[in-house]
Structures are given as structure tokens and as C-alpha cells.
Amino acid sequence: MGALDYLSNFCTVTSTRTKQKAMQTTEIKVRMDCDGCERRVRNAVSSIKGVKSVEVNRKESRVVVRGYVDPKKVLKRVRSTGKVRAQFWPYVEQHLV
């Protein structure tokens, strides 16, 4: 047993396990007028690590992102494409307030 105890001092395992984010569905309202706008938003969101699917509906001005991502990070990435007025989907209409 002495040899095993001696060798075990050299073989240490450190666990760097990180907590995985939960699967999220993020819906964002973002105005897209053309194919270029739609493509820019889709490509920007698709490149985020953890994104599993992206659905873009230009008629409804809606982007649905599913994956292991932070919703705030998705919104920030959409805004980085120049769509600074993007907001989470359950939004309040400006003229109703």
C-alpha cells in the first residue's frame, strides 16, 4: 500500500466542471426591412456559442432563439448589428403607454 499512496500524490485530478446553462427560448422584436437585415441578424445570433436554432419571421418582426444562452447576450448581439431598438418580445407598445 505504501507505493500506491506515494504514486497517488503525483496523480491528482482537479474537477473544473462548470454549471451548464438551462435551455432557453428567447423571443426578440426587431424590425427587419430587407433580406440583408434578416441575414445579418440571423448570422449574428447563430454565431453565439450554445445556440441550437434561430427562427426569423420578418413579417412579425420576430426572432426566436433556442439554446443554452443568456437572453441578455442574445439581445446585445442583435443590437450590435445596428438594430438598437430591438427588445424582448413581450414588449409594451409605445403609443399604449
UniProtKB/TrEMBL annotation:
CDD domains: HMA (cd00371). Gene3D superfamilies: 3.30.70.100. Keywords: Cadmium, Lipoprotein, Membrane, Metal-binding, Methylation, Prenylation. It comes from the Eukaryota. GO terms for cellular component: membrane. It is found in: Membrane. GO terms for biological process: response to stress. SUPFAM superfamilies: HMA, heavy metal-associated domain (SSF55008). GO terms for molecular function: metal ion binding. Residues 23-86 form the HMA domain. Belongs to the HIPP family. PANTHER family: COPPER TRANSPORT PROTEIN ATOX1-RELATED (PTHR22814), HEAVY METAL-ASSOCIATED ISOPRENYLATED PLANT PROTEIN 21 (PTHR22814:SF110). This is HMA domain-containing protein. The lineage of its organism: Eukaryota, Viridiplantae, Streptophyta, Embryophyta, Tracheophyta.
